[in-house]
Amino acid sequence: MPDPDQQPASDLGGFAEAVDGTMYVVTAAAGGRRAGCLVGFASQCSIEPPRFVVWLSTANHTYDVARAARHLTVHVLGRDQRALAELFGGLTGDDVDKFARTAWRPGPDGCPVLSDVRVWFTGRVEQVVEAGGDHVGFVLSPAGPGAGPAEPPGPLRFGDVRDVDAGHPA
Question: Which of 37, 50, 58, 89 has the greatest number of beta carbons closer than 10 A?
Answer without folding.
Answer: 37
